[in-house]
Amino acid sequence: MVTLAITCGVATFYESSRGTAAAQRVFYQTRWFTALLSLLAVNILFSMLKRYPWSRHQAGFVMAHVGIVLLLVGSLISLHRGLDGTVALYEGDGTGAVTLRERALTVDVAGRQHTFPADFDSRPPRPDRPAVFAVPGTPVTVVADDYAPHAEVSGGTVRPAPLPSREERRAPAVRVRFDSPAGGTASAWVPWGESVDADLAEGAATVTFGEREVPLPFRLTLLDFRADTYPGSRRAASYESRVRVDEPDGSRSEHLISMNHPLHHRGYIFFQASFVEGQPMMSILSVSRSPGLPLVYLGTALISLGVAWMFYVKPWLVRRQARRAARPSWTNSVAEVTS
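Above: the chain sequence. Below: its structure as C-alpha cells.
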C-alpha cells in the first residue's frame, strides 16, 4: 500500500508536467503497475479469508473487503480492456472509428492492412537494434531502424529536435524500410501523422506513423454544432453537438451531446470535449468504454454498505447483545420460551 501510494503520488506530478499520455504509458498502463494493483487485491482477499468462518458481527468487514476487491478488478478490466480516445468531426462528416492515444504503425501491402503498436519511447529502435514487423499474409516485413522523439520537417528533410516540455507537443518520427524476398527499399523517415509509399513486387505498400484507430460498431455523424459565448466576449460559455447514430441494421437515432450531458450508447460514452472554430465547425468528442464499470459500481456500493454496517449496525448489535447478557437468567429463559 505504501508503494502504491508513492507511485500514484509520483505519477500525479509526472502527469502534470509531461501530460496524460506520458503518465499512462510510463505508469498506469504498465505491467508492473497492474501487478501492484493485483498484489493489493490478493492481500485484501487473504486478509478477509484469514478470519473465516465469519460471524454476523463481521458482515460489514466482509462486505467492505469484497467491495474493494471488486473495485480493483473492475478498474483493471477497464484499464486493459477498455477504450479511451477521441473523435473529431466537421459538420456533415461521419466516422466509424475512434482515435486512441496510442502510437502505431499502420502498414498496407497490396490491400492487406495491419496495425502494429509503436511505443518507441520506452525502447527506441536503432540501426544495431531494429524493430521488425511482419505483415500477416505477405512475405513483407517493415523494419524500423531509427527513432526521434521530436523532429522538425523542413523542405522534405526530417531532423531530430530538442524535446518540448509536454508530450502532447511532441512530433516524433521513425525511420523505416520495407524488406521482402523480391527486394526491399531504402530507409526513409516517416514524420508523425504522415506516410511513406513504396512499390514492391508484392504490390503497392504504405506505412503510416500516427495514432491507432479502432472501429466502432456503428457510425457517428455530426449534424450540427453550436457554441454560445459569454456576453461581450468571444470566450465559449457552452457548446453542444447534434449527432446521428447509424446502426448496421439501417436504424438511425439523433442525440444531443453537451458539456454536462454525454451520450451513452452501446457501452460507449461520448463527452463534448472541445471544438475548433471555423467554416465548417469541428467538434471534438472524448470517447470512453469501461467494461469493468459494473464491477466498480457494485464494489463501491458494497464498500459503502460495509462501512455503514461497521459504524452503525455492528455497534447496535453489540449493545443489543450486551443488554441481553445483562438480563436475569429467568428473564432470558422466559424470552427463549416465548420466542
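The first helix runs from residue 2 to 18.
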